Amino acid sequence: MAIDMKGKNLVSINDLSREEVTQILEIAEIIKLRHYSHEEQPLLKGKVLGMIFQKPSLRTRVSFEIGMIQLGGQAIYLGPGDIKLGEREATKDIARVLSRYVSGIMARTFSHEIILELAKHSSVPVINGLSNLLHPCQVLGDLLTIKEKKGRLSNLKLVYIGDGGNNVAHSLLFGSVKVGMDIVLAVPPGYEPKEEIVNLANEDAKKIGSRIEIIQDPKEAIDGADIIYTDVWTSMGFEEESEIRKDVFKPYQINQDLVTKAKDDVIILHCLPAHRGEEITDEVIDGPHSVVIDQAENRLHVQKGILALLL
Fold this sequence. Notes:
Blueprint lengths: L17 H19 L11 E6 L5 H12 L3 E5 L1 H4 L7 H11 L2 E5 L3 H10 L4 E5 L5 H15 L6 E5 L5 H12 L3 E5 L8 H14 L3 E4 L2 H5 L4 E4 L11 H8 L6 H4 L7 E4 L11 H4 L6 H19 L1
Parallel strand pairs: 1-2, 1-3, 3-4, 5-6, 5-8, 6-7, 8-9
Helix pairs in contact: 1-6, 1-13, 2-13, 4-5, 6-7, 6-13, 7-8
């Protein structure tokens, strides 16, 4: 039975039920099939998405804008200089005014608090395109990719290696346990995910039967891995720590030697952009186990599913 998600916000995967996550992925699969069969339907004809960007992006802007066009709607890009969130006028006023103009708001912000405030004061759906805390659309696209490549989501082992305190790692914790997947994070001391995120994810893990493990040794973590995931070592807001982090994370590089310790049919994920030669080598990201380009494409399809359901 379909779940009515019209008008709902997407701030965090943790806010979604397991059934809602499943529905988003199923709708995304149908939309992707129709796209490649040239049977795209104008599900969002007459709808307009307002896209707020504090931080520039290739994949987020293009995938949301193209997604709206392909579904028959339109998107308006609002760059850093167009709005100046919280500077020129209050965020709650921006949310209220935009709600009178557009059918939905997608925001890519530095602070997660801005996403929360937009969602609180908007009368149209707000989608978290990225914040410093979470990246839900990315991880929903990742789950679609894993499902395509592995034929299922439950009873798999995902190993994330790198900075456990960034937005992708946090959303992977929420997303993995929602679908019955085990997740192991191999992170250096001091770079663990936020405790409140782990606690929330563990609540779902206990209900669904998933397992969360946080360790330091990447070689131990990789044993039996179905999926290996990594991200840049220096996320937004930590640029001044870049050189220090390169030294700390050097043993956490995804290279061919590490990949051979996983399952023979392991797949490699990276949310991009990648710093080749740092968190991942050319040999791996361009190698036979890598599905990063399929993963990037699936941002488009899963976000079209989100837009169709929410708008």
